[in-house]
Amino acid sequence: MEELIWKYIDGDCTREETLEVERLLKTDETFKNDYEQCFTMHQQLIATSKVDLSLDFHKALTLQVADFVQSQKIKPTFKALSFTQILPIPAVAMIVSVTIASIVVLSKNQVFESNYLQYIPEIGDTYITYATWSMAGFLLLYFADVLLSQMRLNKTNKGMMMV
Amino acid sequence: MSFHQNKEYEIVNRLLSGDQRAISIFVDEYGTFIYHVCNKILSHQDEAQEATQDAIMKILHALSNFDTKGSLKAWCYTIAYRTAIDYKRKIKYTTDIDQATHLHTYQYTDENLQDDETKYNIQALLNHLHDEDKMIVSLYYLEEMNIKEVCKITGLTESNIKIKLYRARKEMALHASKYFDQYK
User: What angle separates helix B147-154 from helix B158-179, to the nearest 10 degrees?
Assistant: First the structure.
């Protein structure tokens, strides 16, 4: 009988079982008492199940998680990579290529010219100008991103202080 | 990947990138859930808080290896449950509820005397159950989870959960008269 009562309370009864429970509730006093006890326990379990964190403990957990995330910087995904981490790669590549190009143009080393220069296209002032502007553009974006990241970090720190 | 898994994956990614809002969501949703699991196993606020902090550190350390095909909540549950069990073994917590009931110096306040007493007695009743059964009852009633959600979190089958739930409540009903007048 108790199994049927719990099925009824949980809403798992078939139509026939529901009708049977409803009939017993009207006619059988013992069944009615058992049902009331089970239902009271059910209600008490619902009422006492909710757990709220105390304000202090919630604050402590937030700080713990924030500290860990800030200090560990655990494996960011590609999406999480900022320009700060990506931009230096083409910027450095550009600096290296311009430096090599300058050396090649300026040096009139015969051995270098005969061995390597044949593989490098003709380098003129226009190429160097474009390369310099590209490099300057990259560096500008890089510094802008560093600045924005710093501003974002300051904002986050202020938020943390408020927490 | 389901919508719910997508949401969890997004929280993990944002948490890993240090997003302040994701930290709040993680603490509100998962921190509370982890505390609930630890509290049900340990039945003691201070120890449950300590175990919760420990479980959260374990979760954070392993978060970058989290399999996004699984459920974050189920994963948190497993870590929290094991951590709480370890704590229970470590502190040699007494399972003799009658002894605990008499020794416990519980301070009732005038304002919520009835609520506190009911909560305390229900916890005492839950302590009569094995840890796994205790967790199933707690999860079922926590935010009124349905059987399917409990299955997802515990990894047990639906019929297994139903049987355990029924037996656990039957066991609780046997001891109920010790704690509640209306069961006498």
Answer: 100
